[in-house]
Amino acid sequence: MFPKYSILVLALSTVSVVSQAQENPWQVTFPEPKEGQYVHTPPTLEDLEASNLHPELKRVIRRGHDLFVNTQQLRGENVFNDMNCSSCHLGEGRLPFATPIWAAAVTLPDYRPKNDHVNNLEERIAGCFSYSMNGTPPEYGSDNMLALAAYHNWLAKGVPIYQPGNTLYGRGYPIEKPEREASWEKGADLYQVHCSLCHAEDGQGLKVRGEVQFPPLWGDDSYNWGAGISRVFTLAGFIHHNMPLGQPRSLSVQDSWDLAAYINRQERPQDPRYTGDVVETREKYLDTFHTHTQYGLEHQGQLLGDHENTGGKDFLKPEVLKPRTYR
């Protein structure tokens, strides 16, 4: 489990994250907010206990937190790889520049190009299960889905609904364009120096007594070809702001792009939207997604994603991934 964080907005507009774990304190300084950006301090579980919310609602929010940081408890039912929600959304979903999840609670429902319709919060969570965790989501309205949504909403406490997304400080993994085209060859060397200690030389991550400590970055137990982080720019931003763990922004923008180009040229489970032909699938979702991935492109004599491997699951596409229209 990740340590709990207290997010502080200082008088000089410097945002710092301070671990509350007394045995291992540290401080990380984040970029200053830009003029007009909305800075939010997500509440903690301690704040939850001190609140006047109904005890049953508190229990459900705590359940959502538990599922968020240990989604592996749903392994074989909803999760079919070694990822947790907190693998991509660091600091219990509270950390700036690690896709803090409170932003989703105040910007949804909204139109999403990836599936070409308006998504609500539960549907957005369903996408993470389907792609990042290569699985199938809890049923809409189920106890687990409600708990996860309640945890998202708790972290957004006090933020105005439909706060413009581009004004939310620390949302997503923003990154500048590289000075030169990203080089997977340079990324391969950087990976061995900066990443292999935690994620292993073969990218398969680290388990201790069967529990995932550091997730795999490719292969059957990693995110599939439809996951948002399979886009090179998304992974580059995540790396730049968050990796190596405990050393945010220690890698240059260019190094982050090179690493992302290398990692996202490795094979992984099939995109759940696969039509049976990788070139056709890439073309079908090119404008809305795959223009930013290596899926369907040649790498070392092979078309990436040209297989029917679905990883640890025995199905391709969850039933919930279907179009919605009000026409």
UniProtKB/TrEMBL annotation:
Q: Where is the signal peptide?
A: 1-21
Question: Pfam families, from UniProt?
Answer: Cytochrome_CBB3, SoxA-TsdA_cyt-c
Q: By its UniProt entry, which SUPFAM superfamilies does this protein fall under?
A: Cytochrome c
Name the InterPro entries on file.
Answer: Cyt_c-like_dom, Cyt_c-like_dom_sf, Cytochrome_c-type_DH
Keyword line: Heme, Iron, Metal-binding, Signal
Q: Which parts of the chain span the membrane according to its record?
A: none
Molecular functions per Gene Ontology: electron transfer activity; heme binding; metal ion binding
The record places domain Cytochrome c at: 71-267
Could you tell me what this protein is called? Answer: C-type cytochrome
Q: Which species is this record about? A: Nitrincola tapanii
